[in-house]
Write a structure and sequence with these properties.
six-stranded antiparallel sheet; mainly beta; five-stranded antiparallel sheet
């Protein structure tokens, strides 16, 4: 009997109207999308993961090096891509305590402040930014348009089973 590896991405954006609402923990929207076939792990990211497992790389997706990126392009994701396909994009370092690993899931989270990433959010990726910029994945999904003054939290979870 053959078993297949299952890969699931869950992309969550929590939106806060302003800094006061963010500090109070009062979001006006929280959307969670379970991403399917049109989103993917990228070949360069898969290769780096294998190199990490084999001890052939020190370029970790850790708190000091991992970044979550948001872009404005909705071109379909394909495994051969090496970057977001953006007209506009912003990369953000990990929040304290991230990435977080629990069971078969890794979670990445970054906060985009009042003056950051104020454009249409149509793509998301995680990259290893400490030594180069190796993207792990790319998700294409419209999460709306962030405007100046808002704070949005982007969280990406990847589960293998």
């Amino acid at each position: 009997m053959k078993e297949k590896l299952k890969y699931i991405e869950e992309f969550t954006v929590e939106k806060f109207e302003n800094d006061k609402a963010h500090k109070a923990g009062v979001s006006y929207e929280k959307s969670i999308e379970v991403c399917s076939d049109e989103n993917c792990l990228l070949n360069v990211g898969i290769t780096l993961v294998w190199n990490l497992i084999a001890g052939l790389s020190a370029n970790h997706y850790n708190n000091a090096n991992a970044e979550i990126g948001i872009g404005s392009d909705d071109t379909a994701a394909v495994a051969t891509q090496t970057d977001l396909v953006y007209a506009s994009a912003v990369w953000q370092g990990m929040d304290t305590g991230y990435p977080l690993v629990a069971n078969q899931t890794i979670s990445f989270r970054g906060e985009f402040g009042i003056a950051e990433a104020n454009f249409a959010w149509k793509e998301c990726a995680v990259r290893q930014g400490g030594n180069g910029t190796t993207l792990l994945n790319r998700i294409v999904i419209d999460k709306g348009t962030k405007t100046s003054g808002e704070i949005w939290l982007a969280k990406l979870q990847i589960t293998l089973s």
